[in-house]
Specification:
The complex is a heterodimer of chains A (about 240) and B (about 240). Helices cover about 75% and strands about 0% of the residues of chain A. Chain A contains 11 helices and no strands. Chain B has about 240 residues and is mostly helical. The longest helix of chain B has about 30 residues. Chains A and B meet through helix 2, helix 3 and helix 7 of A and helix 2, helix 3 and helix 7 of B. Chain A: It holds the Pfam family FLQE3_permease. Chain A: Keywords: Membrane, Transmembrane, Transmembrane helix. Chain A: This is Fluoroquinolone transport system permease protein. Chain A: It comes from Amycolatopsis magusensis.
Chain lengths: ~240, ~240
C-alpha cells in the first residue's frame, strides 16, 4: 500500500506538471458554456451523452498522453528500476485520473442541474466508464512510437466505446450493443438525470460487465507494457 | 511554385507511411456516412417518438458534423505535422536549403486552407442534405472555414511545446471551434455577435444564411477581416519562435 501511495503522489504531481488539471477545468468550463444556455429539458436529455461522449474520453487522452510523455522523458526507465510493480503503477494512474473525471462530472452536473440529480448513480457511471476508457487509452497508446501516429487510429476505440449512444437514443435497436461495456455506465448516467428507470437486470449488468471488461483489459495491459516498453527500454 | 511542388511531393510520400495523413483522407468518408444515413434515421425517430420536426435543423447538422469538424481536424493535423517536423529537425534543415521559412509556412497554410475547402465541398455536397444550386456559395464559405483551420493550427503551435501538448490543445480547442458556433442559432439577441470572437462563428453564420436564402456575404466579409486580424500576430509569433 505504501508503494501505491508513493506512486499516487507521483501521479498527482505529474498531473499538475502535465497541466492535466488545467485542461480538465478548461473542458469543464467549455461544456458549461454549451450546456447552460440550453432549455432545461433539452439539457437533461443531453447530459448523459456529454458525460459518456466527453468526460470519460478526457481520461482516454490523458493516459495516452502520459504514456507518450513518459516514453519521451525516459521516466519509465527510472520507474522500471524501482520496486514499484506494474499493477501499482497502472493503478496509481487509473485512480488519479478517475478522481479527476469524477470531480469534473460532479462539477458539471451540479452546475447544470443543481441538486436535481442522483449523485451515487452519476459517480458509479463515471467511475466505471472512466476506468474502462483509461485502460483502453493506455492499451491504444502502447504500440505507437509517436503521438501523431496514434491520434488517428485512436478514433476507432473511441468510436467503438461510444456506440451504445445509438442504442440509448433508440436510433439503433439491437442487443449486440450490450456487448460494448460502456453501455452500463451510459444507463447509469441516464438514470442519474431521471431519463430512465433502471431495471434490476440493468443494474446487475451495468455494474458487473464493466468490471469484468476492465479486468479483461488489465491482463493485456501488463503484457503489452512489457512487450512495447520494457523490452525496448535502453535501446529505444 | 517549385518549392510547393517539392514540399507537396514530400507530403504525399508521407501519406503512405503516416497514419495521420491516411486518417485525414478516411475521416471525411466516415462523416459523410454518418450524416447521410444517420440524419434521416434520427429525423424519423424524432418525429415518431417525440413529435419533433428535425428538418429545420438539418443545416445545423451539416454545420456541426461536417463544416466545423473540417476546420478542427485539418487544423489539428497540420499542427501535428509541423510539430513533427520541428521535433525531427526538419525545420532546422529547411533553413539551410534555398526554401525560405516564409515559403514553407506559405505552403503549409495553403495546404491547410485547400484541404479544408476540399473536405467541406466533398462532405457537404455528398451529404444528401444540401441543395446543389448552393454549391457555388460553398466555395467562399469553405475557404473561410480553411482560414479557421489555419487559426487552429497557429494557436496550437503557439501553446504547445511538443506533440502530446499538441493533442491536448486540439482536444481543448475542439469544443470551442466545433461546439460554441452552434449556439447563436438558438439565440435571438444582439449578444449572439459576441460569438464572433470564435473564428468558426463566421463561416457558420454565412453557411446558415446562404441556406436560408438571406444575405450571407456580410458574414463572409466580416470573417475574412477578423481572420486576417487573428492570423497575422499568430503567424509573426511562429516565425519568431522558429527564427
Amino acid at each position: 500500500m505504501n508503494r501505491l501511495g508513493a506512486a499516487l503522489r507521483l501521479e498527482l504531481r505529474l498531473q499538475r506538471r502535465y497541466k492535466f488539471a488545467h485542461a480538465a477545468v478548461f473542458s469543464g468550463v467549455m461544456w458549461l458554456a454549451l450546456l447552460l444556455p440550453m432549455p432545461p429539458g433539452l439539457r437533461a436529455a443531453a447530459e448523459p451523452y456529454v458525460l459518456l461522449g466527453d468526460l470519460t474520453i478526457v481520461g482516454f487522452f490523458f493516459i495516452a498522453g502520459a504514456v507518450f510523455f513518459e516514453k519521451g522523458e525516459r521516466t519509465l526507465d527510472a520507474i522500471v528500476a524501482t520496486p514499484l510493480r506494474f499493477g501499482e503503477y497502472l493503478a496509481a494512474k487509473v485512480i488519479g485520473l478517475t478522481g479527476l473525471s469524477v470531480l469534473l462530472a460532479v462539477g458539471i452536473a451540479t452546475a447544470t442541474s443543481g441538486v436535481d440529480y442522483h449523485l451515487p448513480l452519476l459517480v458509479t457511471g463515471t467511475v466505471l466508464g472512466t476506468v474502462l476508457m483509461l485502460l483502453v487509452g493506455f492499451l491504444s497508446a502502447l504500440p505507437f512510437t509517436s503521438v501523431s501516429d496514434w491520434v488517428m487510429p485512436a478514433v476507432l476505440p473511441i468510436a467503438l466505446f461510444n456506440l451504445p449512444i445509438f442504442g440509448y437514443a433508440g436510433l439503433w435497436d439491437t442487443g449486440w450493443l450490450y456487448l460494448v461495456p460502456t453501455y452500463g455506465p451510459l444507463l447509469f448516467f441516464g438514470a442519474a438525470f431521471d431519463q430512465l428507470t433502471l431495471q434490476p437486470w440493468q443494474i446487475i449488468y451495468g455494474l458487473g460487465y464493466p468490471v469484468l471488461a476492465a479486468a479483461g483489459l488489465w491482463l493485456p495491459a501488463r503484457r503489452w507494457f512489457d512487450k512495447y516498453l520494457i523490452a525496448k527500454t535502453g535501446n529505444a | 511554385m517549385s518549392t510547393f511542388a517539392a514540399l507537396g511531393r514530400n507530403d504525399l510520400r508521407g501519406v503512405r507511411r503516416d497514419t495521420l495523413l491516411v486518417g485525414l483522407f478516411l475521416a471525411p468518408l466516415v462523416w459523410i456516412a454518418m450524416v447521410r444515413f444517420g440524419t434521416p434515421a434520427a429525423t424519423t425517430l424524432a418525429a415518431e417518438e417525440f413529435g419533433f420536426d428535425l428538418v429545420p435543423y438539418h443545416p445545423l447538422v451539416l454545420v456541426g458534423f461536417l463544416l466545423l469538424t473540417s476546420a478542427i481536424v485539418v487544423g489539428g493535423v497540420m499542427a501535428l505535422l509541423v510539430l513533427d517536423e520541428r521535433d525531427a529537425g526538419t525545420l532546422t534543415a529547411i533553413r539551410v536549403t534555398p526554401v525560405s521559412m516564409g515559403s514553407y509556412l506559405g505552403y503549409r497554410s495553403a495546404t491547410t486552407v485547400g484541404v479544408t475547402l476540399l473536405i467541406v465541398l466533398g462532405t457537404i455536397s455528398a451529404s444528401g442534405l444540401f441543395p446543389a444550386r448552393l454549391i457555388p456559395a460553398l466555395v467562399p464559405i469553405g475557404l473561410l472555414t480553411g482560414l479557421s483551420g489555419l487559426v487552429v493550427t497557429l494557436v496550437i503551435l503557439a501553446v504547445a511545446t511538443n506533440k502530446v501538448e499538441g493533442v491536448a490543445a486540439i482536444r481543448a480547442l475542439g469544443i470551442v471551434i466545433a461546439g460554441l458556433p452552434l449556439l447563436p442559432s438558438f439565440m435571438d439577441s444582439p449578444w449572439r455577435l459576441a460569438f464572433g470572437l470564435v473564428p468558426t462563428f463566421w463561416p457558420t453564420e454565412a453557411f446558415l444564411a446562404a441556406v436560408e436564402g438571406t444575405t450571407w456575404w456580410p458574414y463572409l466579409a466580416g470573417g475574412v477581416v477578423y481572420h486576417a486580424l487573428v492570423i497575422w500576430p499568430l503567424y509573426r509569433r511562429f516565425t519568431r519562435s522558429t527564427g
